[in-house]
Fold this sequence. Notes:
- The complex is a heterodimer of chains A (298) and B (525).
- Chain A contains eight helices and eleven strands.
- The relative contact order of chain A is 0.21.
- Chain A has 298 residues and is an alpha/beta fold.
- In chain A, strands 1, 2, 3, 6, 7, 8, 9, 10 and 11 form a nine-stranded mixed β-sheet that branches. In chain A, strands 4-5 form a two-stranded antiparallel ribbon.
- Helix content of chain A is 28%, strand content 21%.
- By secondary structure, chain B is mainly alpha-helical.
- In chain B, the strands form four sheets. Chain B has a two-stranded antiparallel sheet with strand order 1-2. Chain B has a two-stranded antiparallel sheet with strand order 3-4.
- Chain B is elongated, with a radius of gyration of 27 Å.
- Chains A and B meet through helix 4 of A and helix 9, helix 10 and helix 22 of B.
Amino acid sequence: MNRRTFLKDAAFGGAALGAGAGLFGRMASAAAPPDLAIIQGDSPAAITRAAVETLGGMGRFVAKGDVVLIKPNIGWDRTPEMAACTNPDVVRTLVELSFTAGAKKVTVMDNTTNQAQRCYARSGIQEAAKAAGADVPFINPRRIKKMNIGGAWLKEWDVIQDFVECDALINVPIAKHHSLCRVTLGMKNWLGAIADPRNRLHQRIDEASADLAAFFKPKLTVLDAYRILVRNGPQGGRPSDTRLLKTSVAGADAAAVEAMGATFFDIPPADLPLLQFAVERKLGRIDLEKLVLEKRTV
Amino acid sequence: MKNERSRKHRRLRLLRIAVQAFFLGLFFTLLFGTRFTGEDYIGRVEAFFHFDPLLAAATFLASRAVLAYFAWAAVTIIVTLLFGRVVCGWICPLGTVHQFFSWIFKKAKFLRPKKPASGGLWVKYAVLVFVLAAALFSLNVAGYFDPLSFLTRVSAASLIPAFERGLNVLVGVVYAAHLEAFGDRLAQAVQTLMLNSTFSQGFFIGLIFLGVVLLNKWRERFWCRSICPLGAMLGLFSRYNLFKLEIDEAKCTRCNLCSIHCQTQASPFPADQWKSSECVYCETCAAICPTRAITFPVRFRKEKLPDVDLSRRRILATSFLALFSVPFFRISKARKRADEKLIRPPGALPEPDFLRKCVKCGECLKACPTNGLQPALAEAGPEGLWTPVLVPQIGYCEYYCSLCTQVCPTGAIKELSVPEKTTVKIGTAWVDKNRCLPYFLGRPCIVCEEHCPVSPKAIKFVMVETKRPDGTTAVEKAPVIDLDLCIGCGICENKCPVTDRPAIFVTSVGEQRSGENQFLLKMDN
């Protein structure tokens, strides 16, 4: 990337991202990978691939012979154009990249909110991930165990073991509006890795999400903002509830990805209680202006 | 003694068993296929029902409507006219179940047929007359006795749930044996089958099945002999059929084995006493005859009506019984005022029409992806026993699903496309402010609004001030319901964290199929 294309992208990105994202960040230095990769483009697969490559490639997160678990949002019985679940092409690409990096086994799963078989099928994720060679199992009640979460607030909860019995955990949320939390991004996505009664956690949702994010510690977070849900979240229902951003945000710092995602909804990251809790729990940085961001269009 | 039994008829008997196994397999394949398969639309998994002339007749009489797909029932009638009750003996899945248990009971010496049974055959004709006469007076009770409805309902609400629970025990055993990988695979396979396993009446419906099976201890295929109105109906058509039993008097030793082991009391011996209306062509008599005396040659003669069993007096008496029992079925609040819990599946016809068509088969219970559809007990009155109701605390109505409307064999639930279905209002949600966490405790909670599937959401938020028990004041987002948008799907009730009696709940009022079960004054200007 040269300076001219960056400026062009920044202008394009700034317009597309509601002027928020383009103002933050410094240019990436040539040597070290940036803190965040923010890639735009027409193809969900291509921007996902470019985002991971910008961070230094999947090899940075997945070692040869690793068991990889990819956690998309498959929570709702909604088709991809409703932007309620992670884009299937994004998931497929991450499965492919994991295998290319030498993963022994890749599993894609989620504890859904609507009826599981319907969510898996109609989100398109089951088919896409299977086509790339991943296992896409339903939650097995026998693989749920009460675990010490060790959070500042959430002490213990039933955890689906697949999410802890893996070498590399990759979080692939989709950026969505949410009435209680304002937005739901990567940290609340962890409610899909634990068992019921999850609905009780809503009484302290931000602290719970931050504690779960600290517990699961994904090696990589890829925020799917190809098509985001801007109202009627977190499941929408009409294509008009969505907005096409054609963006992928990836980073090893889950808080930074989350902060970037908040700007897509014109929310200053520091305004989100969740991100305050995340900073308190030292999950990462949300001061986007001080982070190294690399923005590109592919 | 040299074995003189007929090889031909023994082969025919084997063929019959193979055909029975095939159709029983087909029946359960279709029933297990009555679920979300990954597609919005499933094929004609309810096809068996459309070949059932009893359901065709009862539904036609009760609803006064001609349903095109019941034209298939003519196939059954034609087959019966030509070949007799082969449908009972070779195809009917419930007949196969009864015959299987009769066979087991015989092998276990639990059932010991000593002399040819007699009597009791008329009962099924009475059941038939009752069902048809009641239907004429718009009371549809066919489904309680129709063999396909009976077996489907028992399977959906009792046998399959028990099977699912059994499978889960098996999975547990596999894990206990430290075969983790196999256990994982098995658990996934079980989940893919989407077997609903929670039915509040499953135990009792299972008991009825057990009782009906145990009747086979008394007489072989008891149901088919004495209860089945479909068998009775086909018996009336079978007297013209081509194959008539004949006994070669020269060979017959009068051992009576044929009549003792006749599955259905057709009395093969003596041949002039043989009842074509009872014979299901199981080939047992011809196969076990020690002297090969029994054959079924083609004969173009008409058998006499089963006059002993179907006297004019009994027809009249049963018809009057049906006529006089109809009002008793209707002495119930259900006819006056809708029950709050009577949340019908989307596409259900207005209640009186629904009751005329529903045959309580349970196809919809099997198809429902959330297990929310349950057999009614008293919600719909006596004539609504085992009709489907949505119980949101067990399962909600999945927004983009119209499976129950697709599998209903009689159109009691009108077939809807998915987009049509999403607009159907089946009830209305209400907030119990004395239990709702934001209203009552001033605690945040969003679960109902989060899950509301319509767009824009029918559950909206208002900021509400609440006095906490300690006297401080909380201001929290609390749910309110936009009645114009709520479709009554019940996911809010299902997901509400107040487990035992949810703080948000759905009742049937406002359901779009009803003109009476409403509460808002229409003010257009």
